[in-house]
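Exam revision sheet. Question 4 asks you to relate a sequence to its structure. Input first:
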Amino acid sequence: MEQLSRDEVAIVLDLVSDDLERIEKILTESSAAGTPFLTESATYLARAGGKRLRPALVALSARVWSDCNPDADATAAAIEMTHLATLYHDDVIDESDVRRSVPSANNKWGNTVAILVGDFLFARASSIAADVGGEVPRVLADAIARVVQGQVRELEHLYDVRRPAAHYFATVDDKTGALLEASSRLGAALAGAAPKEADDLRRFGGAFGTAFQIADDLLDLSATQDELGKAPGTDLRDGVYTLPLLYAVEAEPSLAAALGTPEPDIDLIRSAVVRTGAFDRALAVAADYVDQALAALGSAPHGIARESLEALTRLIIDRVPVLE
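Answer key, structure tokens:
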């Protein structure tokens, strides 16, 4: 696959930089609460940074057809706020200590505060979506339900070394794909795309999301703590067995004996994932989903916004370090 330079990445982000500034302002203002403590805790993860991938997809998908109008701005903020709410809850579920290179909210203030802040952000996101109106509230509500469904499905198979790959893909489709589908579909629809065109962008978002999650799972094995913003091998310790590990166990069943514990031998498992070809196999699957995402853009008008979506999609694979 064609490599992307840092300059090319900067160009992708520069196209929607003004849009993202407006969206960030809505996000900050909408996270403000009636008490200083709730405002501090509700804006904590937003202030810690993040990719802002979902707002970027809304803005880029909108710009394929026209521009990122006020309704698209608000929708992007609602989707990102929903994503942030899931992070507060995920860190409680996973008992995480670090998120985005800072102490997680549950580590800083305790589980009760983290859960309540997540609930607050879900409510604020729903309010923003209601103000936009049209199909936005329903699409966002459906996406939230799918995220929860994906999370519960994942919990059903913690520490399960025989977790089927089909179960992994179904989980990813909901837990990661739902909000990315909503982002690209609503961005297009709010900018005037026809229903068929908006649905193509939904399919783009779904394939993009699966590729992105597989890449993230590979990064959990190959990247450093500085690159991840959290300790590598977190999924293994938490008992979330992702695609490269499932492929490794399929190729070398004896590897299962090293799993099923919150204190696995990370180096041994990394070695097995490389030795069995599981890392490259999973990366090839991610590349296939990248191709599916690019194909779904086939009906979109040509222009710099579409080119930027294509570049962002190719970056999914480019960011995965080689594991040797």
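Marking note for examiners. The chain is about 75% helix and 0% strand.
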